[in-house]
Design brief:
InterPro entries: ClpA_ClpB (IPR050130). By secondary structure, this protein is α+β, with helices and mostly antiparallel strands. It has a single domain (3-145), classed as Helicase, Ruva Protein, domain 3 (Orthogonal Bundle), CATH 1.10.8.60. It is 47% helix and 14% strand. Helix 2 (12-34) packs across helix 3 and helix 4 packs across helix 6 (139-145).
Length: 146
């Protein structure tokens, strides 16, 4: 049985576990390399599950995490927005909006309404500061940063 066949049979609970495993991998890497603690809400995994495509198999999970979380992390680092030793919290912006799996590709208009991930720094007093991350200009450079 191929990985894609296994992935086709996975339910949302198993997908969330795989996404959390991938997020934990990146959290350890960011902690080791940059002394930044990465936290995330359970809604983040739910949003990433929404982007999962069974046809692409488990590779899609890695892709979703890299596109939505790692690229933002790397861009924030490149833009000197992450002080060493900080705690970074990943949340879903517009988390009150419905996340629903759609078998069809979203239209350009529908994509504008999909929730996005937001990175926030949590300070010592448990106050949060949302990061204003600019879109990375060179994807290759960003991927190698984290």
């Amino acid at each position: 049985m191929s990985c894609n066949r296994i992935a086709e049979n996975l339910g949302d609970v198993q997908l969330i576990q795989l996404i959390n495993k991938e997020l934990n991998f990146w959290a350890k890497r960011v902690k080791q390399r940059h002394n930044v603690m990465l936290l995330w809400d359970c809604e983040v995994a739910g949003m990433l599950v929404d982007g999962y495509n069974a046809h692409d198999g488990t590779r899609c999970i890695k892709h979703e995490v890299e596109c939505h979380v790692v690229n933002q992390l790397a861009a924030a680092y490149e833009q000197d927005l992450l002080p060493g030793g900080c705690t970074l919290h990943t949340t879903v912006e517009d988390s009150d909006k419905q996340l629903s799996k759609s078998p069809e590709l979203p239209s350009p208009q529908a994509e504008k309404h999909l929730p996005k991930l937001q990175l926030e720094i949590i300070d010592k007093d448990s106050k949060t500061c949302k990061l204003d991350i600019q879109v990375p200009l060179q994807t290759e450079k960003v991927c190698n940063t984290i």
